[in-house]
Write a structure and sequence with these properties.
Number of helices of chain A: 9
Largest interface: A-B, 75 and 64 residues
Number of strands of chain B: 0
Oligomer: heterodimer
Structural class of chain A: mainly alpha
Radius of gyration of chain B: 21 Å
Structural class of chain B: mainly alpha
Largest sheet of chain B: none
Radius of gyration of chain A: 17 Å
Distance between the termini of chain B: 73 Å
Order of helices and strands of chain B: HHHHHHHHHHH
Shape of chain A: globular
Largest sheet of chain A: none
Number of strands of chain A: 0
Distance between the termini of chain A: 59 Å
Number of helices of chain B: 11
Strand content of chain A: under 5%
Helix content of chain B: 55-70%
């Protein structure tokens, strides 16, 4: 077995992938920093267990998904009490600033927002990262059939949103 | 599974695939996350620290000072708290405790098989002088609030589920013991577990973390020469370490202490 990858190298090479994934999973605003921190904290802790025979991104995706999901769920309840005044937080980069904005991207993110987090994760892993569904199921630790059904729902919602957005665009 | 997306969706999907990252924003974010990681990995585990006095203010202060901290680690009593706070605040906010996945690592008792190895007989480093007043302990005590962990479901799959007695688990326990000694304000007590780790796992996967932690302990003990030597060795062995900022920070505190003319006991 080859030695586990060095954390620093992994951090350098995959930070962009992780933060983009978090953004697509719906982590917004200043939270992207907190969530990215948490993801890499867990990656560090679990790195020695990583099976080097396997690709690293699906493994990272699993962490990103679970932490983003739990963070979002908790942040809904804690947001008011745990965040400071807006003006003092403005120095932290915003998730929205991470990607160079374009109209198509803005619409795509809106369409993604219509998906539940669970559906979104399957959709992103499969459609963007081009991970076969059995691998998606494994990365997310969900049954294969669940992965397929989430993908179906996600596509259907995404397509509906895309149609709606296109119609709005034409009638504007 | 082949699936032809309708043109609208396909266009939006392409926009997601081809989205360009702003390199300036990404590098700022990366630097901030990196700096926080280096401290959180060597600092208290979130489980220790779910109740932080004035969490929000500290969090805000840490956020706003994140970049300067990354550059030079200006650590005073207040800023240390501010700097460590996001880690703890994050623990509160997310309920994420890294040790949830390593519940055995909460440093209660070491397994029998690690105990007999050198307890006090082999100090981690030469101990030239009695400890100076350490900078961190009293600060850290303020946030030492065991048992206040919020819970959240964060059951990560562990690809090769680590057995409580696996080498890694034992390594982790030893380092956690040292970390928590530092957190309790008893850096002296942290040296023995690190020494046991060095003896038992000379090429352990957590060697880098151990060496960085040793620098912090020695610096907290006021063993300046030993800390500096160990830090130099650390930089030679691990030139691109995640822990470089934390190690530099520990050395910077020594310089600051000396710089402001605090006399040694």
């Amino acid at each position: 077995m080859s030695p586990p990858p060095q954390f620093r190298e992994l951090f350098e090479s995959e930070f962009g992938y992780v933060t983009r994934t978090l953004r697509y999973l719906g982590v917004g605003g200043h939270e992207i920093e907190d969530v990215a921190h948490d993801v890499f904290l867990h990656v560090y802790r679990h790195l020695p267990e990583f099976d080097t025979a396997r690709p690293v991104r699906p493994w990272l995706f699993g962490f990103a998904y679970r932490i983003a999901r739990d963070f979002r769920a908790l942040a809904r309840h804690h947001h008011e009490s745990t965040h400071g005044p807006q003006d003092l937080r403005d120095t932290a980069p915003l998730a929205d600033e991470l990607l160079v904005q374009s109209q198509a991207l803005e619409q795509a993110l809106k369409a993604l927002d219509t998906l539940e987090t669970d559906e979104r994760a399957v959709f992103i892993a499969h459609e963007l990262d081009e991970l076969p569904i059995p691998d998606v199921a494994e990365a997310l630790a969900i049954p294969l059939n669940t992965a397929y059904s989430r993908l179906r729902r996600a596509r259907s919602k995404f397509e509906a949103a895309a149609r709606r957005l296109a119609t709005q665009e034409r009638t504007r | 599974m082949t699936h032809q997306l309708p043109p609208n969706s396909a266009a939006l999907l392409s926009a997601l695939r081809e989205a360009r990252v702003s390199s300036a924003v990404e590098s700022t974010l990366k630097m901030r996350v990196h700096s926080r990681l280096s401290v959180s990995l060597l600092g208290l585990t979130p489980a220790l620290s779910a109740s932080v006095p004035a969490t929000s203010n500290a969090l805000v202060a840490a956020r706003t000072s994140g970049i300067s901290v990354a550059r030079g680690f200006t650590v005073g009593k207040g800023t240390l708290i501010a700097w460590l706070a996001p880690v703890f605040a994050l623990g509160v906010l997310t309920g994420v405790a890294v040790d949830r996945w390593h519940p055995q690592s909460a440093v209660k008792a070491l397994p029998d098989n690690t105990a007999p190895l050198a307890q006090q007989d082999a100090p981690l480093a030469p101990q030239p002088e009695p400890p100076l007043q350490a900078i961190s302990p009293s600060d850290l005590e303020q946030i030492d609030a065991p048992g206040a962990v919020t819970s959240a479901s964060l059951a990560m799959p562990s690809p090769t589920a680590s057995d409580a007695n696996s080498s890694l688990a034992i390594e982790r326990r030893l380092l956690d013991e040292a970390r928590q000694a530092l957190a309790r304000g008893e850096p002296q007590a942290g040296l023995a577990p690190l020494d046991r780790h060095a003896k038992r796992f000379p090429k352990g996967v957590l060697t880098e973390e151990r060496e960085a932690l040793a620098v912090r302990l020695l610096a907290a003990l006021g063993q300046n020469d030993a800390a500096t030597a160990r830090a130099e060795n650390f930089h030679r062995r691990f030139p691109n370490s995640l822990f470089t900022p934390a190690v530099d920070n520990a050395i910077a505190t020594i310089s600051r202490r000396n710089g402001v003319g605090e006399s040694k006991p």
